[in-house]
What we know:
Elements: H1 3-51, E1 62-67, H2 76-91, E2 95-101, H3 108-119, E3 128-131, H4 147-165, E4 170-173, H5 181-187, E5 191-196, H6 203-210, H7 220-223, H8 226-247, E6 252-255, H9 258-268, E7 274-276, H10 283-287, E8 299-305, H11 314-326, E9 335-342, H12 347-362, E10 369-373, H13 377-386, E11 389-391, H14 401-409, E12 412-416, H15 419-425, E13 436-438, H16 441-453, H17 456-469, H18 475-486
Parallel strand pairs: 1-2, 1-4, 2-3, 4-5, 5-6, 6-7, 8-9, 8-11, 9-10, 11-12, 12-13
Helix pairs in contact: 2-18, 6-8, 11-16
Amino acid sequence: MAPGGLCLCGLIRLLCSLLIPALFLSGILCVCLVALLWGIRLWMQQRKKQLTSAGRDGKRPLVVAFFHPYCNAGGGGERVLWCAIRTLQKKYRNVTCVIYTGDRDATGEEIVEGAFRRFNIRLTHPVKFVFLEKRYLVEASLYPHFTLLGQSLGSVFLGWEALLKCVPDVYIDSMGYAFTLPLFKYLGGCRVGCYVHYPTISTDMLSVVRNQDTRFNNAAFITKNPLFSKFKLVYYYFFAFMYGLVGSCSDVIMVNSSWTLNHILSLWRAGACTSVVYPPCDVQTFLDIPLEGEKSTTEYSIVSVSQFRPEKDHPLQIRAFARLLKEKRLGQQPSLKLILIGGCRNQQDEERVNSLKRLCEELGVGNDVMFRINIPFEELKRHLAEATIGLHTMWNEHFGIGVVECMAAGTVILAHNSGGPKLDIVVPYEGHTTGFLAENEDNYAEIMAYILSLSPEKRLEIRENARRSVHRFSDQRFEETFLLSVEALFK
């Protein structure tokens, strides 16, 4: 036999001789890992018993924990949180609700009072807060690159801190940190559920990268470089796979709209435990605002209600408004004001507001745009009651609580032609128009001009149709569907 053949046979024998020890070593490592994880789980269960005391009736309460690091923010996600807690407190008497939060700049009492002031929600029983020190790990600013992966891994460490401080019976991720689900399920021994407002990654995001479109989450320097775009696409596909893996660990999955449902079903593939639970909108409070004919003949106001986050696309609102004024489509009609109402969660949001104010000055509309930040609920109602148009510009908004509130308050809504507003909210009701949809700067300016050109009677007809259509998004409807969905977690 040729020397080359002998060398090849020797190499094969060497590999075979190493294969069995390698498999044996791998098996030992796997057993050690499983034993370690099982030991951690048993330790967590023991810790749960030590940290949880019996109630007045001698029974240990069922601890339901919500993972919501920004519970003191003023957005729609926080309204879902507080309504969910209130619903559970009304339904289950032997339940203690816990919130994992990183809002260490406020006391528990201040947070609860803030929820009442902003959302008009009063809890029937006290809620316990577990204050987390490592919330900075989920801040986007910490990860200028690979932000999705960085925040997700950061949420695992933040979740570990939460689990060490309180081991619940039921864990509900109410803010979209899906990577914490396996942590609480397999190490904490909890029944786990989640309420998904917006998928961390979606097939639409994959399409944006694949088509090399420039967006707030797809920088121009990436779209202009085919190599960078391909690398980011691979990264996104890998992340989507991991996201689907951790999301499928959930025992109960609630999504807030048809748009979110479609994406979660395609990514998590857990249709049997997934259901749509429309977020609770305080429609009754806004429906209590008298719907009368328009009184003001000197000024029209256009109101936007949304947190100051990049995806809300406030610059589009300002540019469309500036174009409306610049082209003087209104002739000698009454003057216009754009009022931007929203919550600021952190310094980045505040810097974003300052940037928007500079944009207003650059476009010459600084005196025509008002910013109202973290305002009381009564002031929000007043602005909506006086508004003619409700404005929304987020591409692929998962749902759009602000859109519903604008419609319930009696404004003529102009929302983005995508996501929840397109599929669930600004849709014909009993065959009648409930609002309008737009996609770009010119489109928005044109439709705003059209709405303002309508007669007050025609606008009143649209407002009435919109009001009748929003009852399906009420607090009562949320309570019914939420309890039905989470029932499996309490059996």
